[in-house]
Amino acid sequence: MDIGRDEPGYEAVAPGEWSIVDADARQYVRGATREVASLVRTTYGPLGMEKQLRTKDRKNNPETVHTADAGEIMDGIQRAQGFSHPAAALFVDAVDSMQRGLRDGATTAILLTDALVERGLELVEEGVHPGTIVVGYAIAAGRAGEVLDGMARPVDPEDAALLGDVAATAMAGELEAPVRERYADLVVEAVGGLAATSGDWLDTDDVKVLAGPGEPSGLTRGLIVRRYKEELGAGEEAERAQNWSIRDKVDWGFDWSLMEPREDVTLALLDREIDFEASALSFGDDEDNMKSGVDIRSAEDLEAYRAGRDDRIGATADRLADLGVDILVSQPEVDAEITFAMEERDIVVVDEVEYPLSDVYRLARASGGEVVGNVDDLTADHLGTAGRVSERRVGDEKWTEFGDCPGGVFTLVVGSETATERERRERIVEDALEVTVRAAIDRQALPGAGAPAMAVASDLRSYAESVEGREGLAVEAFGDALADLVRVLAANSGADPLEAVTTLRAAHAATDGPAALGIGPDADEPIDAWEAGVVEPRRVFSQAVETARATTEQLITIDAVLHPGVDLERFVSEPNRE
């Protein structure tokens, strides 16, 4: 539409000079979805392949990641150069929002969006208006919800067997079966603990997942805090050595000494630095000199300052001891002099609880305490409790375990053969926890193994005949796109996709109503996913379908891509590449 072209002050511009339109625009969008889908297609299903990403970590350092998780693949690409193709960026952002909320289903959403765009654009080329396709896809998505309603089973949060199947399915393809089953039992135990202490709403932030080389798997009611050895460069070491004074009570190196285990302890929690410097007052008796800051003009002033500071440290330590504090937990580092004063009064200091920053607040929920910012504000009402506290060294970390806590906070520990495997296992178990909690909260589950996709696809094939107008073509295309998911799943299982889909389609057609029949490990014969223990939360698949439909609606209605002042050659010739 040429708005204002004939009005004074407007100069006609040939659209070809600054835009891609019509068939070229559709090809531009199609190239983006095809490229993104190619990144995760072979990862789909329990027998999918892993990808190796050469990316950057969150500190912008080079990083190599091995994963079959679509969310992690997308995140790794974003951390590096990202998606420069605008249509690809829109596509990935939509899926990323779903992944962050559910921690699963990203691959399904990506592949289904790609299939919907492809089949939708084929209809456009045949003369069907994009608006008609959007309406047809919406009808199909609504019908899909009805089919899934008939397939879903209720989930009792106390049904450990069903929740265990959900957790194990979420980890399928990532871990060996015996390890996967052991971790699934721990996930279910953690979910049960949350349900017993939190009621209907389960907050996964109250479960921390830790992996450590050689660590036995287990669940602790409470929190395990891990702290790292500080790595100093040569310049920092030299500077500290030059400024070393005999007055310092503790070496600046990481303190690997472990506290003696304690029982029935009282905790004080701080999230701000204990800093007597910033709020220091003149230490004289003259009220006229009580001004903010420290004014040192002579050696005598320095000695008076040191004596006054030591007095304040001692008074603070005495006050905490009088309150009955056994352990002082601080998010920032605590100065050596303060630590020494606390230890003289049998108060253990656990500081630098900075990774993650939420740990000190988790510990507050676990212990029933309250985090304060200023140590002077600490009262008996702020203190928490723990049944036992102990420390151990795990690799290059020191773990402090606050166990038998009264609050509903848990730490799930899994072993890892190597340090490099640690982050991967933590991510796998965290995702399984999120997925299992989702099933427990929603109280609905679906069979997996491609059964929902094929059940809906089979239903839409016959339902499309009852839809009047060209919208029926879009409904049928929606079903074909869902069947494409089963083709990918079969191909990644090593089967012939066409044969596997044909066999599975015939099996669904022979049943009365939606069936739980899906692709098995060998893909030769359909399996009953319920009996095989392949189960997923209802919301994961439903949200993947809705995300794909909404994203496709945005992409398929694009008929022009405007790039004023931008060289389009690279986008036209090689979509999604620079």
Overview of the structural elements:
By secondary structure, the protein is an alpha+beta fold. It has 3 domains: 19-154 and 447-573, GroEL-like equatorial domain (GROEL, domain 1, Orthogonal Bundle), CATH 1.10.560; 160-214 and 425-442; 221-416, 3-Layer(bba) Sandwich (GroEL), CATH 3.50.7. It has 18 helices and 18 strands. It has helices spanning 22-40, 70-79, 86-102, 106-125, 130-151, 160-170, 177-198, 234-242, 299-323, 336-344, 359-367, 419-442, 451-463, 471-492, 497-509, 529-532, 538-556, 569-573; strands at 19-21, 51-56, 62-67, 153-154, 207-213, 218-228, 262-270, 327-330, 348-350, 371-372, 384-394, 397-403, 410-416, 444-447, 517-519, 526-528, 535-537, 560-562. Strands 5, 6, 7, 8, 9, 10, 11, 12 and 13 form a 9-stranded mixed beta sheet that branches. A hairpin with a 2-residue loop joins strand 11 (384-394) and strand 12. The chain is elongated, with a radius of gyration of 30 Å. 42% of the residues are buried. Mean pLDDT is 84; it is low at 1-5, 230-252, 279-292 and 573-578.
